[in-house]
Amino acid sequence: MLRAELARPGTRALPDGFPRPRLPPALRETIAAAADLADPSALADFYCERMPRMLVDQLVYTEAGEVHETEMLRSFFRHAGLREVRAQPLRCAPDAVLVRGTAP
Q1: What's the pLDDT score for residue 92?
Q2: Which one, out of 6, 26, 56, 85, has a CA that is 20 to 30 A from the CA of 101?
């Protein structure tokens, strides 16, 4: 499904360094089994709409568990469709940065 969505005309490519989304086998099997039992639209809505939005929280960290550079985080937010993406250091922790944007 992800490949099909990314192949749609007008869809932007994932930015360089963007973690490749993966669906764990157990989750894939659970969704397939649920689809055999009932209408899978609630599952599809959660896993295809809501969960990708929650992925932004997970994108903050690299595979090694380090926080991405600020410009990389800003590019993730812009790619997710947010506008006016800004980064500002926190006064209480100068080495920490708050990155935020506006939803379309």
Answers
A1: 92
A2: 6
